[in-house]
Structures are given as structure tokens and as C-alpha cells.
Write a structure and sequence with these properties.
Distance between the termini: 24 Å
Low-confidence stretches: none
Mean pLDDT: 87
Helix content: 55-70%
Number of domains: 1
Amino acid sequence: MTGTQTQGFDRNIEAATRFLDRVAALPAADRERIANDSFGRVGHTSAIMMVADEVTSVKNKDRQGRISAFLVDLERRVDGMGLTAEFGDLVKSAARSILVQDAAGLERATHQLYSPFEQVIPQRPAREP
């Protein structure tokens, strides 16, 4: 694995962690503004599968286990937020999409999974502090 890959992993993990921090801090009124109409539709399900495949690929390249550790933390954090199952799945899907946001050919899928949050939590570039 190259140093560039390592930096990309770290940068995307940091961006996904910031996203989770922002979701956890959302007031109830803002949570209600998050669109869930795409949940369960073919495009959403297809995006989940594409992102899951890439997350698995990235996880297998990460010899230090940072991606795996983040995924375990993601489950723990979302479970601890007391969200409905559907909303929790939207959060997890969006966070996973952030992990692979730089992958070629996944732009549409990552946008599909993050889009429910755009109005409430505008997406920041991964490099932003």
C-alpha cells in the first residue's frame, strides 16, 4: 500500500467521523428534514451494493485495520444514537459512501447515499478540516 492510499483512508475516515459527529448533534427538527423517500428504492439499493463492494475492497487493502475499526465504531455510534432503523441505515450508508468517495466510477452511488442529508448537513470536501 502506498502512502497516498494511507492518506486517502485517513482523510476519508476523518470526513466520515465528522459526518457522524454532525448527525449526532442534529436537533430533532433537523432530523425530520432529512429525506428518506429514496430508501429501499432500486437506485438506493444499487448504490448500497456498489459502495459495499468498494468498502470491502478498500478494507482488504488496509493492512493496519483502520477501515475495519471505523466500521465497527460506525455500528456502535449509530446504535447509540437511538435512531429508527431506517434512519440509522441511511446514516450508515452515507458514512460508508464517504469512506469511498474518491473511488473512480462511484460518484453517482456515493451522491445517491449522501443526498438525503444534503439540506441539513451539506457535504464538505474530504480535505476540509
